[in-house]
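TICKET #2291
ISSUE: user wants both folds in one file
ATTACHMENT 1:
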Amino acid sequence: MQRTRNRWSSLCYGLAALCLLPGAALADDDKLLVEAIDVEGGAATLYITPEHQALLIDSGWPADIGAKNPDSAQRIIASARRHGLSKLDYVLITHYHVDHVGGMPELLAQFPVGTLLDHGPVREVPPPGMPPAAAALQPAVLHPKYVEALRGHEHRTLKPGDTLSIGSLHLTVVTSDGATIDHALPGAAGTIAECDSMKPMDKDGGEENARSVGVVLTFGRSRIAALGDLTWNMEKQLVCPRDKVGPVDLFIVSHHGANLSNSPALLHALSPRIAIMDNGAMKGGDVETYETVSRSPRLVQLWQLHFAQSGGAQHNVPETYIANPSATGDTHASLEATVSSQGAITVTNDRTGYSQTYPPSAAGGAPRKGREAP
């Protein structure tokens, strides 16, 4: 999957990245830790700054479904404690589907949390005649439980264009509650050729997906895109006819790798060097998304939390780059990315300890390998 980079585009992107540097200086050895926690096809990504401040994006499933033994909240808490955290300074809920907000009541009851961030009121209405068991997992039911659980915590509703600094990690909201940012961020790439052939998609998997809070995170020279379950049609508003985001170094693949998201236009606009897909064995990791991400112009490597059963060997990365390659021998392993202030990224497979380091964008050359693949 190694790509031959165009030297001129790499130079231009390197110069653009310099314009994105925040005012506070970072030491060469300052690093941001990004952990994609395995919550079995749900979403929970932990960011820890050099100042030891923490942001969690999404909270996985409720205790009785999805991740079990341990459940989503317990897996998140275990990760936080493993990294020496005694508190999550911020928790951002991208939207109110059960695999993203379901674990919040348990998490808030068991671990200290500072400020809660979200897109505001629930927007999705369950269809009439839904069986009670299914209705109990709908956003209209889950949201009141979330609101009750966050009582006593600071809370902020995010709008496109809002910014937030968490130590040396700087967050810009690019989508929220069905709206996109109204201006281009520094380094945005102009027109995207795939926009001309991008047709609207009828399905969105539920209105809350389109309401996802999507953010671009800047750390030193590096940029990370995390868009929740943002849908195909909202992606078009974000990058067409002109891109508002620009290239990133790391992309948390949207919607667990579902084909209702991750359009060719979005992947062209973001042009990530590294992508991490938080799919489950039987959830996400769709063939169309695998192919689109793999063809992204600057991609060096895609990593996956699970082997996607629907894709077969042809539409999954090699086992080296999969945290949990077997549905029967699932070890709940995570993927960790360490991002340096100068732009190098090291990704580690928690299952094996294998790691690979990718130099800053303008450095060129092949990635440097860490521990050899087993």
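ATTACHMENT 2:
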Amino acid sequence: MSHAKINLFSFSGNIRTLHLTWIAFFISFFIWFNHAPLMASIQATFSLSTQEVKALLIMNVALTIPAHIIIGMLVDKYGPRITYSSLLFISSFICFFFALADSYEMLMATRFALGFVGASFVIGIRMIGEWFPAKQVGIAEGIYGGWGNFGSAAAALSLPTVALVYGGDDGWRYAIASTGVIAFIYSFIFYKLTRNTPNGSTYFKPKNTGAMEVTSKNDFYFYLLMNIPMYAALAVLTWKLGPSNLDILDEFFTDIIYITLISLYAYQTAQVWRINEHVFSEEIPEIHRYQFKNVAILNLSYLVTFGSELAVVSMLPLFFKDTFDLSIVQAGLLASGFAFMNLVARPGGGFFSDRFGRKKSLTMLIGGLAVGYYLMSHIDPSWSLPLAVATTMACSFFVQAGEGAVFAIVPLVKRRMTGQIAGMTGAYGNVGAVAFLTVYSFVDPSTFFLVIACAAIATLVAVQFLDEPQGQTAEIMPDGTVQMIDVA
């Protein structure tokens, strides 16, 4: 596969778009996790119990699964420029409301709403896919995802100091409000300086919105099946907040949410039928077909890569502390290396995908991930600390490089639906986090790592059925003519 270098020191053309877009993602994640490093101050201000803190953390991610799907539809319909600018603009005001909160209920409501900014990743995937050719799209998507994802680490590193500079009991409020100001300003910068596509290119949109298009009867049923885990994950989050766990939601309200989830799945099924009923009565021309199985395999791949990353980052500091009898600060610093690897690993996964082939790269990286988690399942106090850290960092590389390899393929499946495909794939990352953290609540760390390794092996088998992007894909121009787009 041919490969063209990317000059990151340029600030023109598609490189300018790449920089503007990863900064937007960076700010989005900076906002999404702006509460975490300030939680001790928030807890003191509102006299929150441990249970209430846990519930607040869950609320921050609860909406992210459906938000990925909704944002994916919006970006395909309206384009990345308007969607990203609008999301940052609206999120800035939610940050202000969170900073001004005078009750626990307001904290919960605003954190719940900020789940939407956690789905911002989807927007840039479509934007980068529009601006970069197939031979560069992997590394470009990797840079976007890896550098933007660092926003969460930047929040953890900087916001406690910012709050300290402001000083006083309300320092945390000013720190969080400052992140809202940054998002507000950048929403206008992004709108002013970006365009959906290069000059002369067409922004292809789905024929309908409300559900993803499929091109065969079997894919119709497969699509309905793949929607179920997303609702199941939301049901698990509801269960965690319900009377049998954190007891934040009473039994009546918990039952209402369960009924709502079932109703939403029924509604989405009706939407899928509305948009795709024609596949039961007519044959889709070969030139316009795509295999939904490729979307499903990418979903599962992101479940074991990004899903495991979110889960492991959540438990790793405590794991190091308990296993090696470290202080909280020492354990946190050592565990932070897992997230820091994003800066190089995710672009590296995209580079491997561009250079050595999509399917081959994903196979090698998920295989490495499985081995990495298997080795981590054997870490115990008899290990030397440097060896344990090195093993963790090596595993982290395969995890995040695998994420880069997944999204090196997403823009090549079907151009006009890239947002929806990216949205569903991104949602599966959160599904994985919910699933793995639920497992972790019942087992010891060793078994937890082993479960992820087994899930990775199952995914590795599925990846062997992935179709390597080849040749060209067809999209219909506004005037009805067909345009062929290179995917290899």
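RESOLUTION: both attachments delivered.
EXTRA DETAIL ON ATTACHMENT 2: The two ends are 8 Å apart (CA to CA).
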